[in-house]
Amino acid sequence: MSRSKIYPTWEEYRKNNSDEVLREESTRLRTRNPGRIPVLVFTKANDDLVMQRQKFLIPGSLPVMQVKQVIRQYLENSKLKSDQALYYFVQNTLLDSSSLLSQVEKQHCDASGFVVISLSLESTFGKASLV
Predict the structure, then answer these.
(1) Pair 88, 58: CB distance under 8 Å
(2) Residue 19: what are its φ and ψ, rounded to 5°?
(3) Is 10-123 a CATH 3.10.20.90 domain?
(4) pLDDT value of residue 129
(5) Where do the domains of the chain lie?
(6) pLDDT score at 116
(7) Which residues partner with 118 through β-bridges?
């Protein structure tokens, strides 16, 4: 079984996959797996994060907090430094950890039929400077 190519950003993925192909794929996935939501996960272009996989089928009844844990398991360099935090965005909106994935889908589902999550690595304490 061949492994699909991992695209670093949503924009690059979109260039190589037409909207029609993405819609067909999301419809096929939803038909075969009722109750599950197709999710695509990408990293920001300037981050050193690498995903082992980008496509997920996640139950809509799962809280976003657990979705974050599932996604984090597929980060190749999942050990973050103590001064780093991982943020999850959908359409440039920070994900609310207390909501269900089905609620996120209703509010932020892409025209392709996928929920597209972007990961961003940020410094939590700022840059250390010597005085």
Answers:
(1) no
(2) -60, -40
(3) yes
(4) 45
(5) 10-123
(6) 93
(7) 42, 89
Q: Would you state the torsion angle of the CA atoms of residues 23, 116, 39, 66, taken in this order, to the nearest 10 degrees?
A: -160
For the chain, the three-class secondary structure string (H helix, E strand, C coil) is CCCCCCCCCHHHHHHHCCHHHHHHHHHHHHHHCCCEEEEEEEECCCCCCCECCCEEEEECCCEHHHHHHHHHHCECCCCCCCCEEEEEEECCEECCCCCEHHHHHHHHCCCCCCEEEEEEEEECCCCCCCC
Cα 120 from Cα 131, distance rounded (Å)? 29
Structure tokens that stand for 83 in this block: 């001064």
Query: What pLDDT sits at residue 51?
Result: 81
**Beta strand 36-43 with 55-59: parallel, antiparallel or unpaired?**
antiparallel
- Model's pTM, two decimal places? 0.83
pLDDT at 108: 92
